[in-house]
Amino acid sequence: MRILQTLIFSFLLVASSAQAQTYPAYTEVYVNDFADLLPPDVESDIRARLKELREKRDIEFTVVTIHSMTDYGHEGPIEPFATGLFNDWGVGNADRNDGVMMLVAVRDRHMRIEVGSGYGFQKDLAMKEIIEGAILPQFKKDNYAEGISRGVDEVIHDLTGYWPGEYDATKTERAFNAIQRFLDWLGAWIYAILAPFLLIPIRLYFRWKRNKPRHCLRDGTKMIRLDEDADDARLNTGQIMEETLKSVDYDVWQCPRCDHLKIETYRSWFTSYGACPQCNFRTVEADTTVLRSATKSSEGLKRIDYHCLHCGHEYSEERSIPRITESSSSSGSFGGGSSSGGGASGSW
Ligand SMILES: [Zn+2]
Ligand SMILES: [Zn+2]
């Protein structure tokens, strides 16, 4: 029995290690947005800041986003994966080992800033503070581009003592920029505090409009709104699917005297579901596959597969991906640096 257990156990070990760990290949040294979290303008902005850092301070800092570590055969915490990826790519100068990698595994909801072995554990606390102070609050609101962008600035400031664009600035210019940043920050806070108050009357109006009593068109009797369970019996399968997906919400009003029904439609403002060309319900989900990546010389191609969760209708379309422009492309390679696991991680 003992032998059998050992055999099974060692078989499982072999089986799990057989599912080999791989790493994505980098297409450039600044930004590899495999999970597509960055809009093109933010991406080129971040690239410019990382390029500047490399040119002015010779520090290799790279940003990587992936969907999930399981795509590369990795199960478990992000730390060994980040160290492995860092060393696989060889981020940073090979003698100084001063590279930095920001890794975001969006579906795993884990991220890490991995630093080269040259920093020892010196940067762990600072990176932790950047992750918790600047990045995670944005990630929690699904503002990935904003979180990554702010995190990049904070890391650069921590490494060099300068904000991007200020390496050659005079003391006066830097002081002026600091005031500007403070005012931006203050404005953002004031906006964040005031915006909900400005929205209150609008919300109240819509709530009043939705809840105000209805009267039957036939006999003028005050109608009753059915609760979510009772209204399902009055909705068709497409409408029920829309309610399940939260793409559309329905209110069913019923006249208690003549049973006359009034169904009101409230389309969700924020939904990823589109309208089905066959059944017309907002129950279509889309999935994008890159067929051919764009290069500097030719445009790429992607296929979007649509699938209706109500009627099962499926259709696809192909769209071109714009050619990578000269200014946004930047190949090159890393300096062969390594990490011994320094840095910090966060989850949201
Ligand atoms: Zn009635
Ligand atoms: Zn459909």
Q: How would you describe this protein?
A:
With 348 residues, the chain is an alpha+beta fold. It has four domains: 2-166, Diaminopimelate Epimerase, Chain A, domain 1; 169-206; 213-270, no CATH class; 272-335. Helices cover 39% and strands 20% of the residues. It is built from eight helices and eleven strands. It has helices at residues 2-18, 40-57, 78-89, 124-139, 144-160, 171-211, 228-232, 237-245; strands spanning 31-33, 61-66, 100-105, 110-115, 224-225, 248-254, 261-267, 284-292, 300-308, 314-321, 342-347. The strands form three sheets. It has a five-stranded mixed β-sheet. Strands 5-6-7 form a three-stranded antiparallel β-sheet, covered by helices on one side. Strand 6 (248-254) and strand 7 (261-267) form a beta hairpin. Helix 2 (40-57) runs parallel beside helix 5 (144-160) and helix 4 (124-139) runs antiparallel to helix 5. The longest helix has 41 residues, at 171-211. It is globular and about 85 Å long. The mean pLDDT is 89. Residues 216, 218-219, 221, 255, 257-258, 260 line the site of one zinc ion.
Sequence-ordered SSE layout with sheet pairings:
Layout: H1 2-18, E1 31-33, H2 40-57, E2 61-66, H3 78-89, E3 100-105, E4 110-115, H4 124-139, H5 144-160, H6 171-211, E5 224-225, H7 228-232, H8 237-245, E6 248-254, E7 261-267, E8 284-292, E9 300-308, E10 314-321, E11 342-347
Helix pairs in contact: 2-5, 4-5
